[in-house]
Amino acid sequence: MTTLIYDLELKIDKNRVKSRLIDLVAYASDAGFYTLRPIVVVQPKDEEEIKYIFNLSNKYSIPVVFRTGGTSLSGQSITDGILIDLSQHWRKISVENNGELVRVQPGIIGATANVHLKKYQRKIGPDPSSIGSAMMGGILSNNSSGMCCGVSLNSYHTVKYIRFILLNGESFSTEVKDDYDRFEKTNIAIKLTILYQKIHQNPTLVSKIRDKYLTKNTVGYSLNAFLDYKHPLDIFAHLLIGGEGTLAFIAEAVLQTVPDLGFKATGILYFDDIFSACSMIKPLSVSGAAMIELMDRASLRSVENVKGIPPEIKDLSSSSAALLVEYQADSEYNLNLLLNQVKTNSESINNTILNFSRDYKQQAFYWKIRKGMFPAVGAVRASGTTVILEDVAFPVEKLGKAILDLQLLFAKYKYENAIIFGHAKDGNIHFVVTQSFEGSAEIARYQAFMNEVVTLVVSKYNGALKAEHGTGRNMAPFVETEWGAEAYSIMKDLKSTLDSENLLNPGVIINEDAKVHLKNLKNLPTVESEVDKCIECGACEPKCPSRDLTLTPRRRIQVRRELATLKNTNIKEYNSILADYQYDGLETCAVDGLCATDCPVDINTGELVKRLRKESHSDSSNRVATFISKNFYATENILRFAIFNASFINTIFGKNAMLNLTKTIKKVIPEFPLWSNQLVLNHAYSLKNCIKSEQKVVYFSACINRIMGNVQGNSIQVSFYNICKKSNIEIITPATLKGNCCGQPFSSKGYKDAFSEQANHTIEILHDLSENGKIKIVMDLSSCTQTLMNCKSALSDANKIKFENLTFMDISDFIYKEAIPNLKIKDKKKSITLHPVCSLQKMGNYDNFTKLAQQCAENVVIPMSAGCCGMAGDRGFIFPELTKSATENEAKEVSKCQTEGYYSSSKTCEIALSEATNQNYQSLVQLVDEVSI
After folding, report:
1. Which of 299, 601, 656, 768 is deepest in the core (most CB within 10 A)?
2. Is this prediction's pTM over 0.85?
3. Distances from the Cα of 622 to the Cα of 140, 749, 830, angstroms
4. Distance between CA 217 and CA 569 in Å, rounded?
5. Are 241 and 140 in contact (CB under 8 A)?
């Protein structure tokens, strides 16, 4: 395929044409249970490049498949041809008509669209559980629905306009009036007219189509388009919804939004058995419940040990079940009115509804648990097995009996850990089984099980084999079974007319191979313990700072699994991937751990990277690191001397002298750190306390803040001393700060012994200064606070006991809780921009940091795309491309909204944001000092 790659690079930047083996392996899988290695991965940036790829697809007869978030579960976004990744350059979004409409490109995340709509109290209709990582291209192409939208507010019913590109390069938009006339002249329009007439001349088929879409159904193409619309362009546009990229490319869509009701009451109702739970679905639905989610005992068991879960779940019997129910209204009054009506008119409904939580954090926790059930069961699977999620729908009145029949099939085929959960209000349930695909016997077991499932759903209960996850590969052999020969022939005619060579996502929806669902199955070989429970759902990816540069956490794990397979089967490929993994997988990982915050099973891929870094260190490099750690006093002096001299060079030869010099050196020595003009020596980091007070605090200033000062204003130490003086708080500091460090620089690089050396030394000092833990300890760098709060495993047994007595607080948290009540705020800023660092999010201090900022400014702007800046201590100096990529979207947002100041809580992050935005980011502590008396 060298010729194809050459042709692609003629028109597309070679950095966006990925053909290295590590890239092909990283993109071989999505969240589903199939895998295919693409020939090449291309990241086009505009429609012209899409058309060019289509031209090459036709020229070489190579199939094309689109991928956005990669959260599809039925094999929709994998290929052994050209994989087009739309996740980077297709993120435009605009809210229109006062929030009534939203215009999106396929690469925008569904949850991000909702963030843009929130101030209008609107949201998009589809609400899949993967909305935090699923992108609009997949949401539209799969006709996603979810927990609340039912059959009326899904992608199909809320799309207003679509712009698409056909395989022949022609593009049309339902928003452009002239395009209707143009489309009428195409062969496609002629064929659609024939199919339209064929359907309408068959009352039985019309009735069948209507009945099918009374419940959720995404099997095959959206034939209801022929009943809901008359013009061929409108029909075709709606056939693209749920078309899984097999008919055309959706370049843009305008969606009608729905109200986002702000007042909610959410709770869990428990039942003795699942049939009893199902019998309550109708009464709850009639009572006005917006969401009703079913969870069987096995699904509850998969999450019962999650911190914060109601303890009563553990005491439920083996046959128990639960319903997660939510009522919504546009005001507190109307919510109370709704719940009172429930109490008055529905005696059969449990009165515990009246005790439902109205706290948004508790509600968010309930929904996080529900949304995480699929990955959670994957986390407890036997290592080496694959997780299979099926998605079916039954008439609600038959749901209880249907589930009991499904459970009998689980027992018959020995799926002992199978779970059932889903959108009970719509009769839509998901069931999850874990399956090994090693050997023909295991594949035969899965085949026999699926055959019986199909018979049960279609023949016995007249249900839908796919309610919302799309047909994909795993239901393609059964489309005709569900729809019948006549409807299926219409779907085949449609596909052959649009794509006669079968180049657009071949293998999904229309497939004559009766065993396609048993081929290219994904195994999950055992890998490192830190990440082995990952099922590759992709929830982590939006938080990853290297997602647009190299690998995401999911792809890092996928590559580790491929390495585990290749190690004993193909040593040449193994060595090739391993060599590239050093940079892609290890060096450009910020080890910030934010991936764990969105992972339903708390996988921190950074811990794996630290381990791999540790294992790559030689004995000599470990000894050097430990020596530096033991002599950190000298190290600190050397760094101060280096910054002083570098600044002197800039003074003599110009402000960019060091920047240009280090750029030149990096060309020869890539690991050499790049200078930043934000680096300023701190001349006032050690101050003597000036007051005595009953309220005391131990102040441990981080080594970075002791070395580096600010381009403008006071040092953070001076500002904190001023704040404490105004608040009548006495500060206690180590006799000498030099040489003391939390150990983070060593921990992030995998130098375990060096980290342990610093952590133990620091804990001993702080234990004595805090009078055995009686006095709180404040850290002035958020990442250092988090490091010390989580350093116990690196401590000696004696210091572990001391550690338990200590109370650490991040400086912003301390000021908000202890100082602000004693301060008077004057001359608030009108508007400021805030960058909450990842450490704050992981420590749970995000809200207090934001509230502190709100005390100092009338308007606090937090960019929607704010996330980890990728600085990771010194990593951004060594790999500046990481911080550039991580901050690109945030910098664009900041440039569009000028404010009076820019603030954060980590010196290196402030440097990264200052470089990216050309604004001067400072510590929020300095702002508090500035506006307080």
Report:
1. 299
2. yes
3. 51, 11, 50
4. 42
5. yes
